[in-house]
Automatic annotation (TrEMBL):
Its cofactor is pyridoxal 5'-phosphate. This is Beta-alanine--pyruvate transaminase. SUPFAM superfamilies: PLP-dependent transferases (SSF53383). Keywords: Aminotransferase, Pyridoxal phosphate, Pyruvate, Transferase. It comes from Acidiphilium rubrum.
Amino acid sequence: MSQSAARSNDPLIHHWMPFTANKQFHEAPRIIARAEGVHYWNTSGEKLLDAVSGLYTTPAGHGRREIREAVSRQLEELDYAPPFQYGVPGAFRLAHELAQMLPAGLNRVFFAGGGSEAVESALKVAIQYHRVRGQGQRQRFVGRARGYHGVNFAGWSVGGMVKNRDAFGLGLPGVSHMRHTHIEANRFTMGQGEHGGIDLADDLQRMIDLYGADTIAACIVEPIAGSTGILVPPQGYLERLRAICDKHGILLIFDEVICGFGRTGHAFAADAFGVTPDMMTMAKAITNGNIPMAAIAVREDIQQTILDAAGPDAIEFFHGYTYSGHPVACAAALATLKIYRDDDLFGRAAALAPKFLERIAGMRDLSMVIDTRGYGLLGAVDLAADGTPGKRGFAILRKAFEHGLVLRVTGDTVIFSPMFITTEDQLDEMFDGLRAVLKTV
Ligand SMILES: Cc1ncc(COP(=O)(O)O)c(C=O)c1O
């Protein structure tokens, strides 16, 4: 039998897995078959502790009955309706509820299917907003090194992750990147570092000096950069970005796809840091990860400007997705927001955060640990590379799975984002598990 014929019998081969070493995976698959609460089970029935809330998606725990029932009811009542020129009740209800939760002024909500789509939507709103005000020359975007804004063309262009860019050509023109905020002076800081905030934010001013403020549409940042290893903004940083944007008419977009819905101990990172953006993207925990969904929140006057610029019967924003405001996703999101409120889960996240950060900081005693940092229920442990960068990180991911622990690794950084329902004993289990794994790599 030829090698390709033999391979075509491999039951795993047809699924091209995202952000995965596919060839390696086939040699040693890590397949998750069941979940409940803070646990998964693999196909052999072994229990695993989920230290990352799915993929930052599931802070209320896996298998929530309330969401399952809401989804099931919705499927019986209305499975789907077209979102263009028609509406479904749940989408209006959800937008209204989100508007009550969001920072004041951010009260117009546009739905998308995932975080990447939300980012594209926000960037397009920014361009159109300036254009209808006669400022169509504002076409540039400013992002940040080590930022992650999803994988679509505009998103990876404004993002600053080298591997996500380098196989895919030129991307969006007119994008500049500020420096990232992970600096030596703030190493081993829990919470916001004391150093560098103003100087790093002044990178935006340097872009303005170089290109002209009136060419820049928006500046987009994750308040805490998640995917590149929990980079917490130094003190004063977000405030300075806000001030520069205000001075120069540049829109500030917070990508809260990871930070949103309680991860910082507040509803949004904007609340935690006391800085309100002009637009915000959300996804992941909006449905507790149960159904794909994302949203952008837009300042009321930005939406109004776009609506006013169009004729009375005209479509104002030529943009939308087949699954914008999907009724089943809306039902899942409404049930999720109710759980967050009823169980005071953001309060629980805030209460657990100091204990969690203490354990992250406690990893410092290991000689291979070169930095620890965190904020709320987001934490990261940087490890010294073992020869090739990323080799040690990947070994940890694999061994942790064998050890019964699901965590997230980027390069040689281990990321934790526990569920808000995690107990202190389970935190101990996570960090004892990591220590045991680190002894083997
Ligand atoms: C900050 C941020 N923006 C955007 C995205 C993209 O979201 P999605 O994978 O749902 O497209 C992510 C995903 O992790 C993210 O962390």
